[in-house]
Amino acid sequence: MKLDDLLQKTSRTFALAIPLLPEPTRHAVGIAYLLFRVADTFEDATDWPRAKRIDALERFVDLLELPAARQHTAATQLATWSLETKPVQHAGYLELLGELPALLNELTTLSPAMQDIVVKHTVRTAEGMAQVAARADERGNLRLASLKDLTDYCYIVAGIVGELLTDAFLLDVPGLSTQATKLRAGMVAFGEGLQLVNILKDAGDDARDGRVYLPPSVSRADIFALARADLDA
Fold first, then answer.
1. Buried b / exposed e across 130-159, counting CB within 10 Å, b at 16+?
2. What is the structure's pLDDT at 138?
């Protein structure tokens, strides 16, 4: 399985950043990114009815929590079921779903401690995305109403990424242990800040697609201020 090829086909910024990491962290974060992308593909599957999007995310969580000996069969079943009716039109995402059994096999090559980190955070994100999908309408349209809605959404899709990366870096680089408290203090802000940049940048396109992440009750200036504070942290 060519992880770097799938990374290039399914990512923009992460495909630039992950190859800069040293091994074995690079391999682990590459696998984690692709698993998160599977969850994101199901959450974004607006060609499916809402109930099927939620069902796919729940099946994905069940798959991740299975014993390794049963994962390959379950992953093959989920990949086949997912592609019977295309959830999205993006060729790279569809290829990734087809490679799900091989991706789960790659997960087993990580150390047990790293596997636990990747699975724990992927499950939490997929469960959160199922909650987001439940709030959207049948076509995937979503409108966030408050600043708390926005920060909760950012935590699900990006704050957990900050937690995963922090756990992975601390595991692979024991010398960072003296900085663990400082790193953990900023790990959620790290993800939130980057996600807010994307939301602000893509607000027009997202709104045309029926996704309004910027709450009308919150000024744009306040959201810019939050993003800047996160990135400063």
1. bebbeebeeebebbbeeeebbbebbbbbbb
2. 80
Which string of DSSP letters, residue by residue, matches 60-104?
HHHHHTS-HHHHHHHHHHHHHHHHHS-S-S-HHHHHHHHTHHHHH
Q: Residue 168 in contact with residue 25, Cβ under 8 Å?
A: yes
What is the per-residue pLDDT for 1? 63
Which pLDDT does position 139 carry in this prediction?
79
Helices 3-10, 91-98: axis angle to 10 degrees equals 150
Beta-carbon contacts of 228 under 8 Å, excluding residues fewer than 6 positions away, are none
217 class by beta-carbon count within 10 Å (0-12 exposed, 13-18 middle, 19+ buried):
exposed
Residue type, 23: E
Which residue in the block uniquely carries the two structure tokens 């060729």? Answer: 91
2-18 burial string, b = 16+ CB within 10 Å, else e? ebeebbebbbeebbeeb
Low-confidence ranges of the chain (pLDDT < 50): none
Cβ atoms of residues 57 and 123 within 8 Å: no
The pTM assigned to this predicted structure is 0.93
pLDDT (0 to 100) of residue 2: 86
Measured in whole angstroms, the distance separating CA 206 from the mean position of its chain's CA atoms is 18
* Half-sphere exposure of residue 43: CA atoms within 13 angstroms, side-chain side: 24
Pair 25, 172: CB distance under 8 Å: yes
Give dist(CA 211, CA 195) in Å, integer. Answer: 14
Residue 177 structure tokens: 């242990």
